[in-house]
Amino acid sequence: MLIKKPADIRPSEITGQNLYANRRRFMQGAAAATLAAGAPGLLGFAAQAQGKIQLPPVRKSLYSTSEPMNSFKDITSYNNFYEFGTDKYSPAQRAKSLRTRPWTVKVSGEVKLPKSFDVEELLKLASLEKRIYRLRCVEAWSMVIPWIGYPLAELIKQVEPTGNAKYVEFTTLHDPDQMPGQRAIFGSLDWPYVEGLRIDEAMHPLAILCFGLYGDVLPNQNGAPVRIVVPWKYGFKSAKSIVAIRFVEQPPVNSWQKSAPHEYGFYSNVNPTFDHPRWSQATERRVGEFFKRKTLMFNGYADQVAQLYAGMDLRKYY
Ligand code: MTE
Q1: Which amino acid residue places its CA nearest to atom 24 of ligand 1?
Q2: Where do the domains of the chain lie?
Q3: Tell me, what's the pLDDT at 12?
Q4: Is the pLDDT of residue 23 over 80?
Q5: Which of 45, 128, 295, 311 has the most CB atoms lying inside 10 A of its own CB?
């Protein structure tokens, strides 16, 4: 972002081109051995070899795209995470020191069972899946990322929303001591970072609560320890490092809407026919590619999500 300035997984997606380092190679081999040993559908305890934070077993998902994934390096070194700076390369450097344990996510508002979840508990609430999704940033670049998570709906069901819960608000950590971008005086956002979804959007099976990517826990710069991923919307809807989820009656005002209401709306569905006031949304450049490609309506997920917006004027509700 710029602030006021210019069906089925192919086996090759699980191994092969994704091998980033020898360590990773070793772990994938171990996962393959697990499969061979009779645990079909599980990608294994890949993170266990890594150190303290471990991911439970991860399943393949039918919701994944079969497009080639971006490299681990691209995904973890070209980031938008304004809490750690406004350029793409700072988050990888500056987020290293973010403390992601202990971490609590407070779920409150219009729910029958409000609760503060320790992230370890949250991680085990439902079975993890590898979801290979396209991410289309509003700045007209895109990537294909193998996220690890489970449907947000699984968490929502646990807390039993009341009839007044029409929207869900997500709030990111506010800690200027740890997040240098929150200490910046100019050219930044009003903190904390806030995002919102309509409750039926949040319940849609494509919307996930995300804890990892490739085979491991989320790197800090990608939103550790927990973020959401909403693949049919511009990337900024996928809030990182979430500490609070609140169920509300009115649409939350998200951070980008607050900063530039004429440029960013509540819905922010990927829409190649409706340009950003300062640039076209018709095409995008996949990170690592030279030529631009056409952007697809709802980022290519129209078959799954278009019915959520039936009858709505998407130019008005941008
Ligand atoms: N979440 C927080 N808390 N702060 C941010 O600046 N940037 C958003 C989104 N989530 C952002 C955020 C934007 S603009 C994008 S494109 C995606 O994160 C990028 O996610 P990635 O770095 O994992 O690719």
Answers
A1: 79
A2: 6-309
A3: 34
A4: no
A5: 128
